[in-house]
Amino acid sequence: MKPTQIRLHPAFALGKVDPRIFGGFLEHLGRAVYQGVYDPDSRHADEQGFRTDVLEVLRELRMTTMRYPGGNFASGYHWLDGVGPKDQRPTVLELAWQSIEPNTFGTDEYITLCRKMNWDPMITVNLGVGTPEEARNWVEYCNRPPGTHYADRRAANGHSEPFHVRLWCLGNEMDGQWQLGHVPAEEYALRAWQAAQMMKAVSPEIELVVCGSCGTSLPTYMEWDRIVLESLGDLADYISLHRYVGNPGTDTAEYLAVGASVDRQIEEMDAACRFVQALRRSRKRPWLCFDEWNVWYKNHESNGHGEAAPHLLEEVYNFEDALAVAGFLHSFLRHADVLRIANLAQVVNVIAPVLTRGDDLLVQSIFHPFKMFATRRDGVALKPVVEGPQYESRSSGPVACVDASAVLAPERLHLFATNRSLDTAAEIAVDLADAEIAAVERGELLVHADPKAANTFDTPNEVKPVDFREVRLINGHAQFELPPLSLAALTLGLK
Ligand code: AHR
Measuring from atom 8 of ligand 1, which residue has the nearest CA? Predict the structure, then answer.
C-alpha cells in the first residue's frame, strides 16, 4: 500500500472537544438497571445496592453525560412511580419492552448514581403517553428549592438540595411508529413546545434536546426535523440524532466505511439546523446531540414476556464492532464544531461495553476504543487532511483506507488512526504544522487477525489493546506502521 500522509494544522481547529460527546445511556431495559448498575442481591453491591464491580470498570471510560431512563421506556414511564418509599412504589407492566418494572430504582437512585460516578444527569421526559405538565412537574421535583409541592416531595424523600439537572430530552424517537404515543411531526412539535415552555419557566437554566429523526431511512427523515425545529424555535437548544450499525453479512470493509455515513448524517442534520435558523432569521441555532449510537444488529430479543430484568438486547461484540465504534468516534471528533453531546447506547448488559453474568463481569471489545478516545479528549479537535489509498464502498463511495482524527492539547497531540484494510499494513506519516513532534508519551494498539474474534467469560482478554510505541520521530514528524485491521491511539509530545 502507498504511504498515507496525515496533515494537521493548528489553524484548522474545529473547536474544543465537548467532553459531553463521551456520554452514556442507561435505560430501564432488560438487565441494564436491575442486575446491571443496581443489584442489591449481588455480593458486589454497596450499601445502596449499586454494583461496585460494574461501576469500577465504567469509571475507566470517563463518561460524562448519562441519559436516563430511556429510550423507548421513557415514552410510557410515569416518574412519580419511581420516587418515595420503595415499599410504596407500584410494580407496573411496562409496554415498550413488555417487562415488569418494579420501580425500586427511580429518580433519586439515578441522581445518587450520577453523583457517585461523576456523571451529569440527562433526563428524557415522557412525551409519548405522558403530558407536558407531568414533564414540568419532574423539572420542579429535580431543580426547585423546597417550598412548592414537587420540590417538597424531593426534600421529603431525603434530598432537600435541588439536583440541578441541566439537560432534558423532550421525548424519545417520537418519529418512530414503534414509539408509545407516536404522532406526526406537527403534533409532536406542539406537545414538545408546550412542555418546553413550562419546563423552562420552572427552571430557566435548563437546556432542551428536541427529538430529531431517529434514523436516515425513515420516510420523514429531514422533513420531521424541519417541522420540529421551525415550531420549537429558540426553545430548542439541541436536536437529537440516533444511529445503530451492523454487519449482518461478512463484508468487513463495507462495514468499516460506516464513519463516512455518520459524517453525512451529522452534516445533513447540521444543514437542517442552519436552514431553519436562516428561515427564522434567528441568532440562535440548535447544536447536535447524538444521544443514541452504537453497533446493534445481532440480538433483537426485545420482548420481556412479562418478566422483571429479562435478558434483552444482550449483544456480544467482536473485534470489527470495536473498529466500527472507533468509526463513530472519529466522526464525532471531526464534527466537534457542531456536535456537542453524544451517548453510547448503552452502558451495561443491553447493547453495552460491559456484561454481567451473576456476580461475574465481562469487558467487551467495544469498551476499548471508547476508552482509548475518551482518555484523550482534552483539547481542540483538528480537521485532518488524509492523503493515501482509498477503497470503494457501496454505501459511501470512495473512503480512505486510513480513518483518522486528532485532538491538539497544550504541548501534546492525540492522534487516532484506524487501518480499514483487511490485508495490508498502512505506512503512516503525521505532520503538524508549526510544531515538532518530539516524543511518544503513550500509545495503544487494538489489533486482531480475526474480525469476528470476541471476548467471552472464558476468554476475556481475546480482544484488548496492547502498548504501542513503535513510532519513528524524524525531523519533527511521526511515522509508524499500522497493521491491517487495527486502531492506534497515540499521545505525542510536542516541542
Ligand atoms: O437503545 C435501545 C433502543 O433503541 C432505545 O430504547 C430506543 O430509543 C432505540 O430504538
Answer: 71
CB of 32 shorter than 6 A to ligand 1: no
Q: Judge if the upstream peptide bond of residue 346 is cis by omega within 30 degrees of 0.
A: yes
What letter does residue 395 receive in the DSSP assignment? T
* In CATH, 4-9+381-494 is 3.30.870.10: no
Compute how many other C-beta atoms are within 10 angstroms of the C-beta atom of residue 240: 28
Asked if residue 71 has a cis previous peptide bond (ω within 30° of 0), the answer is yes
**Does residue 411 carry a catalytic annotation?**
no
Cα(259)–Cα(241) distance, rounded to whole angstroms? Answer: 15
CATH value of 18-377 in 3.40.50.2300, 1.20.910.10, 3.20.20.80, 3.40.50.720: 3.20.20.80
Instruction: Determine the distance separating the centroid of ligand 1 and the alpha carbon of 72, expressed in angstroms.
Output: 6
DSSP class of 86: G
- 291 Cβ closer than 6 Å to some ligand 1 atom: no
The Cα–Cα gap between 193 and 213 comes to 17
Question: Does ligand 1 lie within 6 Å of residue 315's CB atom?
Answer: no
Q: How far apart are CA 182 and CA 166, in angstroms?
A: 26
- Over residues 371-408, the pLDDT tens digits come to 999 999 999 999 999 999 999 999 999 999 999 999 99
Q: The whole model's pTM is what?
A: 0.98
